[in-house]
Amino acid sequence: MTLYWLDLTGTFVFGLSGAMLAVRRDLDIFGIAVLAVAAALSGGLVRDMALGATPVAALATSDYLLAALCAAVCVFFAHRQIERLAKPVMVLDALGLGLFAVSGARKALEYGLDPIPAMVVGVLTAVGGGVVRDLLVTEVPRVLREEVYALAALLGAGVVVLADHLAFEPTLSAVAGAVAAALVRILSVYLGWQAPKAPGPRS
Q1: Whole-angstrom Cα distance, residue 141 to residue 17?
Q2: Roughly what angle, to the nearest 10 degrees, separates helices 88-110 and 29-51?
Q3: Mean pLDDT rounded to a whole number for the chain
Q4: Cβ neighbours of 180 (radius 10 Å)
């Protein structure tokens, strides 16, 4: 049930971020729904295909699709109120990033993956929806242009893997991992944190 609610919450939050980006690009209600669904479900689809989990969770039940469409409807009618929040797309994206990072890592552990592959699956789950969302509106995906993005997801997944190794309570460790990833992502934007880059060519 923990994994289910993490997935469902992450689906709704990423749906909001996709729908908000669609509104900013002046898309119609169909475009809002498409971006919401793409952002909300793509990460989980990548995760389940990597794990060989069939049918994939996003299609095994209507819950996830309904959560994404509910997010699209909320944005369609209340985008002005959501827009008043500071950097709403970024904040929503950070929350979705954290939730999907921990749900991906948690499911990978349940499928018997070793710690490092489980963390990789967590990162793929977290960034997959954002990549598809950004590509649909011809933006360079944030995971490629905003450095502390995949690293934040890696932190969230790492918390879950470490907590599992130490036999901590799964729900609390999942919440801790999601919060850690979201906070690092949000702080990186406000404080201008960047990952190290390769030095330039020598003259």
Answers
A1: 14
A2: 30
A3: 89
A4: 19
Per-residue model confidence as pLDDT tens digits over 49-59? 999 988 898 88
- Residue 86 three-state SS: coil
Indicate the pTM of the whole model: 0.86
What is the greatest pairwise CA distance in the chain?
A: 59
Where are the strands (E) in 29-102, listed by range? Answer: none
Q: Which two tokens stand for residue 160?
A: 């879950």
**Three-state DSSP state, 196:** coil
Do the Cβ atoms of 122 and 50 come closer than 8 Å?
Answer: no
* pLDDT tens track for 150-198: 899 999 999 999 999 999 998 899 999 999 999 999 998 888 887 777 7
What count of residues does the chain have? 203
For the chain, how big is the Rg over CA atoms in Å? 16
**Residue whose token pair is 């729900």:** 171
Give, for 1, the enclosing helix (H) or strand (E).
none
Here the tokens at position 112 are: 């018997």
C-alpha distance from residue 137 to each of 22, 24, 27, 134 (Å)? 8, 11, 10, 5
pLDDT in the model for residue 202: 54
Distance from C-alpha of 102 to C-alpha of 176, rounded to nearest angstrom: 9
- Residue 78 CB: number of other CB atoms within 10 A? 11
Q: How many alpha carbons fall within 13 Å on the CB side of residue 185?
A: 32
